[in-house]
């Protein structure tokens, strides 16, 4: 299995390098790892105490961020290293002030893992939610470095829990402790012999609550809303936008919509404009005061505004559910907004919980989307109940950060 794993890593590296001249993200992935060890060594130097946090991408970073910041408060003398696997995380957060060092994770080979761990020499390591790198985890284990998996969630269909999953379970043995989101994850780990597990909850609830308390008014969105009922659609993909456009153009109720697409390239923005042809539309980056109040559609063609934008809507639509999976429902729920999303939400426990409590609504078709949105905007009782449940659900689930750090003591 080690041979096949190494072969897979090598093939992945070759494919990314081949794609890099033509694919911007692949190019960032490759370029970001050039001279990685020399840059890392120059930045870290010697004599520093290091806590290392690894995040696959931006979503995992936001999930781990409350732990990073609280850890820094409790241990101000320890430097924080954050690594990313994906450019989607690194490029957005490479200047994050809460970390002392931010780098890409090197490709997982035996040689790279040995060099990286010896160079960084972390006192403690946190992997956020997932990412199981065989050589890196084994090196940390061999060096006796405490390694924690936080906000972890496990599912029965994962390879760890199959009869042929012995090799994959070996990676789990490298973790000092698992801080999991739910009872099912705890039971799955117990079923294969791991008792070093604590149900701590999901640190994303702490993060979205933190975002809400720190959010600033976005004057342009307030001017656009102008006191009218508004749908805020976040992290949308083409299929989401097609369905939303079809509903919006045929909606008899006088409402407004904010769309924050997942991709904000010019070609994609123009596609949205075309989908909503005939609807008075304004782009956030090009808006002038006189246009905002009269527009019916506002396109957020920028990043960093979505989590605060949800506050201006009565209902939130969360994109991705007609593709690989929904994006973050909690960013909207923390503002007390009922959330609507597509059918692919199975990896997210909060989606099930929100649906069960009346704060979330999954739709599978144009007809279901239209019926659901129409019901929410025309039935005050339904809207009020959904909003109340969403807010109370997030409030109830906070506290994972404290539970994790209370259980971890660094000398």
TrEMBL record:
Its EC number is 2.4.99.12. Keywords: Cell membrane, Lipopolysaccharide biosynthesis, Membrane, Transferase. Pathway: Bacterial outer membrane biogenesis; LPS core biosynthesis. Its main location: membrane. GO terms for cellular component: plasma membrane. One of its GO terms (molecular function) is Kdo transferase activity. GO terms for biological process: lipid A biosynthetic process; lipopolysaccharide core region biosynthetic process. PANTHER family: 3-DEOXY-D-MANNO-OCTULOSONIC ACID TRANSFERASE, MITOCHONDRIAL-RELATED (PTHR42755:SF1), 3-DEOXY-MANNO-OCTULOSONATE CYTIDYLYLTRANSFERASE (PTHR42755). Belongs to the glycosyltransferase group 1 family. This is 3-deoxy-D-manno-octulosonic acid transferase. It comes from Williamwhitmania taraxaci.
